[in-house]
Write a structure and sequence with these properties.
The structure is a homodimer of 182-residue chains.
Chain A (H helix, E strand, L loop, with lengths): L16 H9 L3 E2 L1 E5 L6 E5 L3 E4 L4 E7 L5 H4 L4 E6 L5 H6 L14 E3 L5 E3 L4 E13 L2 E13 L9 E4 L2 E4 L11
Antiparallel strand pairs in A: 1-11, 2-3, 2-6, 4-5, 5-10, 6-9, 7-8, 9-10, 11-12
Chain lengths: 182, 182
């Protein structure tokens, strides 16, 4: 069956912001926390926009909204730490997504790399990156970064992977895997 | 517990590509198929890098590797259609991820919008976008695009959401949701 060209679109010329939000509410994403310190204190932000773009060289991207309290630091930092979370890291994911709290109040929870960046303890994996490109996109900045150094605490298959979807958190595992016929 | 600064990193100076791939194999992603036609025939590509970056204006990003057969068209297209897939769209997700096949051979499966872009039928949702920015990142291009027009066939909660993780497909639903205590 083909979609008739006359089917009613949601918007025209530019999609409305509410329609756009509804579209992406239905699009699941892996969960990361990005940290940095550009010289005036650590910041952290939970992001579902982290994606690998190239393995050689090892590059990733993520986006930061100017609406985020961490934005002003993240857009000028030369290096960042991207924490790739699993379901055991849910409390950190929620911390980085909560407004108006000091995300570094619990000093047992984080430390600094010898290069100075703040890093949270016990996460599935983290990767320290050098920012290599920035692109303005509306009220956000898309940041490309080169992976310099990483530490993996848990394999992908160990705990359940963590996904954010439709304003809920989900855990992946054997219970969610789709078995392919043929 | 804090991570000792002397803990062993996987790499130094630049992370190796194998280590980087392993890191992101463990990072789940929503699944999309991006189509375009820059004047010399339709192309399609399955991508897990699609993310919303701004709701007002409605902007999204995705990345395209030069290794993809669709790359040369996608990086010069003025408009693209981003299909946001759910588990009912698994066969399309696999089609757009399979090398060496004609992704438009089945003419019952797709049509063209009145503006010319190829669009697959029966997907959860699609959004037609105008490309507004491109950023080179290694052998890939990160593309920012403004949402112009969308059609939603199924709500986020209807079928199960589709996630790619650790070389497997997963379906989200009540069975995968994490219940939060307080």
């Amino acid at each position: 069956m083909s979609i008739p060209a006359t089917s009613e679109p949601i918007g025209f010329a530019s999609l409305g912001s509410d329609e756009f939000k509804a579209l992406f509410r239905g699009h699941p994403g892996g969960v990361a926390v990005v940290t940095a310190d550009a010289g005036d204190g650590p910041v952290a932000l939970t992001a579902t926009s982290v994606a690998s773009v190239s393995a050689s060289p090892p590059l990733l991207v993520f986006s930061v909204s100017q609406l985020s309290s961490a934005s002003s630091v993240l857009v000028r930092a030369d290096t960042v730490v991207v924490h790739l979370l699993d379901a055991d890291d849910l409390s950190l994911a929620r911390l980085g997504a909560t407004s108006g709290v000091d995300r570094f109040a619990d000093t047992d929870r984080w430390s600094r790399l010898i290069t100075g960046e703040p890093v949270y303890a016990d996460v599935r994996a983290w990767v320290r990156c050098a920012v290599i490109g920035r692109m303005d996109a509306g009220g956000s900045t898309v940041i490309a970064a080169h992976a310099l150094q990483a530490q993996v605490t848990r394999d992908a298959a160990d705990g359940g992977a963590l996904v954010y979807h439709d304003r809920s958190w989900h855990r992946l595992g054997a219970h969610s895997r789709i078995e392919l016929s043929a």
